[in-house]
């Protein structure tokens, strides 16, 4: 009953003390692991009541996440977008770029670009992606022309000068122009005082305000948002955009992925499926999504 209640009513868990609600939502899919554990317990006890009660958390998990495991829709014209935090400690930028090219996306968004590594990414991606824009530590490479590129101010108060982790650009696709946002929200930490996400939440509010003011109808957001779409701290963004309909695509940490904190979200477009790509030299896995844009 407790597991079912946490799944079904996670938004009711208070955030006032240690942001426990956000911490729960950041790892919400993993509550499903309680179901097989409780199933074994019920079988050992030979309890029919416990077996019936297990239908509640199983149904709650299936309602929230079961659809992500279904096969993706196919046969609809789309573009493919790729999102990757490449890590500022990546030992092989050129190799990472080559690995991303091999998946043949139309758009590639990168975060944690350093001045030392940026020339390697530019050189490796130039032939396949002739259009690109970089603002601070984030960048977008595109097969299609870019328009109205500008820095996106998502810097929370209290962070020093030189912090630049957002950009906005138009992309002229074969199915019309779309607005593409690339963002890297501040990191979160689990501390003795709780889930430290205040800076991330403030940055999410700034990003949400920018998206709300976007004049183009179709929007694609690519970024490391440092939490899952279930986390209420991202509500200013996720309340306006839609997550992919298929795929769990846990992206972090790369060695043992337990959460998708890298996101591909859309407005007036449909991301039908999201998946991870093989590991690079980063502590994040790349993710990619097929996005249906509809008419121009």
Automatic annotation (TrEMBL):
In terms of domain of life, where is this protein from?
Bacteria
Pfam (any one):
Exo_endo_phos
Q: Does the keyword Transmembrane apply?
A: yes
Q: List, for all copies, the residue spans of the domain called Endonuclease/exonuclease/phosphatase.
A: 82-284
Q: Cite the InterPro entries for this sequence.
A: Endo/exonu/phosph_ase_sf, Endo/exonuclease/phosphatase
Q: Which residue windows are transmembrane per the record? A: 26-44, 51-70
In alphabetical order, the GO MF annotations are: endonuclease activity
Q: Which UniProt keywords apply?
A: Endonuclease, Hydrolase, Membrane, Nuclease, Transmembrane, Transmembrane helix
Q: What is this protein called?
A: Endonuclease/exonuclease/phosphatase family protein
**Source organism of this protein record:** Streptomyces caledonius
- Lineage, top ranks: Bacteria, Bacillati, Actinomycetota, Actinomycetes, Kitasatosporales
């Amino acid at each position: 009953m407790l597991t079912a209640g946490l799944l079904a009513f996670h938004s009711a868990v208070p955030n006032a003390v240690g942001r426990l609600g956000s911490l729960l939502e950041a790892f919400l899919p993993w509550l499903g692991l309680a179901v097989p554990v409780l199933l074994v317990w019920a079988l050992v006890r030979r309890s029919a009541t416990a077996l019936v009660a297990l239908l509640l958390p199983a149904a709650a998990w299936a309602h929230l996440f079961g659809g992500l495991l279904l096969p993706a829709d196919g046969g609809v014209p789309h573009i493919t977008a790729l999102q990757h935090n490449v890590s500022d400690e990546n030992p092989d930028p050129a190799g990472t770029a080559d690995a991303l090219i091999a998946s043949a996306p139309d758009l590639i968004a990168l975060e944690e670009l350093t001045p030392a590594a940026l020339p390697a990414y530019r050189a490796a991606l130039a032939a396949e992606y002739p259009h690109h824009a970089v603002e601070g530590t984030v960048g977008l490479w595109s097969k299609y022309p870019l328009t109205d590129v500008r820095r996106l101010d998502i810097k929370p108060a209290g962070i020093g000068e030189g912090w630049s982790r957002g950009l906005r650009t138009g992309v002229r696709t074969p199915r019309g122009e779309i607005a593409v946002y690339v963002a890297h929200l501040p990191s979160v930490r689990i501390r003795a005082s709780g889930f430290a996400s205040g800076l991330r939440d403030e940055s999410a509010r700034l990003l949400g305000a920018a998206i709300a003011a976007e004049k183009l109808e179709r929007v694609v957001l690519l970024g490391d948002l440092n939490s899952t779409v279930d986390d209420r701290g991202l509500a200013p963004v996720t309340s306006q955009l839609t997550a992919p309909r298929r795929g769990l695509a846990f992206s972090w940490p790369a060695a043992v992925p337990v959460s998708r904190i890298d996101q591909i979200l859309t407005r007036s477009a449909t991301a039908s499926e999201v998946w991870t790509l093989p590991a690079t030299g980063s502590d994040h896995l790349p993710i990619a999504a097929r996005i249906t844009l509809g008419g121009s």
